[in-house]
Amino acid sequence: MVNDSPRKKVLVFRELPPDQLARLQAQHDVSVANPREPEQLAAFNAALGSAQGMIGASYPINEAVLACAPRLQVISSVSVGVDNYTLSALAARGIVLCYTPGVLTETTADTIFALVMATSRRLVELANHVREGHWSRNIGEELFGWDVHGKTLGLLGFGRIGQAVARRAALGFGMPVLYHSRHPVNLATAAPDLLGKAVHTPFDDLLQRADIVAAVLPLSNETRGLMGPREFGLMKAGAIFINGARGAIVQEAALLQALNQGGLRAAGLDVFATEPLPMGSPLRRHPRVTALPHIGSATFETRHAMAELATTNLLQALAGERPLAVFDTSAGLSPAPLAGQRDGPVTG
Ligand code: DGY
Known about the structure:
The protein is α/β, with parallel strands linked by helices and 348 residues long. It has 2 domains: 9-103 and 300-331, Rossmann fold, CATH 3.40.50.720; 105-291, Rossmann fold. The protein is built from 12 helices and 13 strands. The protein has helices spanning 18-27, 41-48, 63-67, 87-93, 105-121, 123-131, 160-173, 187-190, 203-209, 229-234, 252-260, 300-318, and strands at residues 9-12, 29-32, 53-56, 74-77, 96-98, 153-156, 177-180, 198-200, 212-215, 240-243, 266-269, 289-291, 326-327. Strands 8-7-6-9-10-11-12 form a 7-stranded parallel sheet, with helices on both faces. The chain has a 6-stranded mixed sheet with strand order 2-1-3-4-5-13, with helices on both faces. Helix 5 crosses helix 7 (160-173). The radius of gyration is 21 Å and the shape is globular. The two termini are 25 Å apart. Residues 334-348 have low confidence and may be disordered. (2R)-2,3-dihydroxypropanoic acid binds at residues 57, 79-81, 104, 296-297, 348.
C-alpha cells in the first residue's frame, strides 16, 4: 500500500486510548486535534496540510476537508460505519480507508436488544416511576409492558450485527425473525444456528408482519430516509421501532407522526439525524421514546478493541502492508469482510 519515508505525519482527530496513541507515537510524528472541539479546530486544520495518515471517528471527512490534505494516503476510522467519508472522493484520490468491523458486533447487538427490552417493558419509564417516588402501591394496567419473548422481530439489514441481534432474539427469546437485505443470506454457511429461525422477507411484508422492527443497516444513498410516512404506515398497530444504525435512515417527522397519530407503541433510538440530539427535538422528551446518546459500541472493552484495530490498520497501511480491515471505497457501501471472519454483508 503506502511506503516511502519511515516516519509519517499522523493526525489523530478523535482521542485514542493512551496505549494506542503510544503505538503510533513510537513509529510516527503524531498531532492530536479533535475538530469537534472548537478550540482544537485550528490545530486540526493546520495538521491537515502535512497529514499522511489520519485516525479518528465521528467527523465528516468530505471533499472540503480532503482538499486541505494534499499528502493524505490513509484514513483509519475508529468505526464500522463509513458514512462520514466521501467515498467517491477517497477512491478518486486513491486514499485507503480502513474501518473496524467485527470487534463491535456483539456489543452493538447487546445495545439494540437492550432497546427492544427497554421499550417493550417500559424500563426507563418504570425506573423513573420508582426514582421519582410514585411507587406507593402496586402498578396497574396503565403501566404494564408488552412481552418480548415470542414476538416477531423484523430486521432491516442482516450483516454481522443483524445476525447477532437475530441470535439473541431467536435463540434466547424464542422470537421468529424476519430479515430484509439486498440478497438472502446463505444461513447454512454464514449462520447455521439461525437456519429455520430467520427468514428473508420482502421489505413491505416485513413491516406489515413484525411486532418489533429494528434498523441495523448502513447509511447509503439507498437507505437515507428509508423509513418515512408510507413505511411507518405499513407497520402493525402497536408495533415498536428500534434504530441502532444511523439516524438519517429515518425521517424523524414521520416517526413522530407515527408515534403521535399512528399506531406506533414506542421507539428505541440510539442514533439521530443530528447528533448530539438538539435540545429542541421532540424526540428528547417523548414519553414513548427511549433515546440513547449513540452508545452502540460504547463499552470499555469494545471501544478499546476498536481503537486497537484502527491503530493496527493505520500502522499496517503506513508500512506498506495490507491492513486487516480495508473498506472498498470503489464499491460504495458494500464492505469487504474482515480477514479471517465470516463472509457476508456487513452492517453498521
Ligand atoms: C460505528 O462504529 O459505526 C458506530 O456507530 C460508532 O460510530
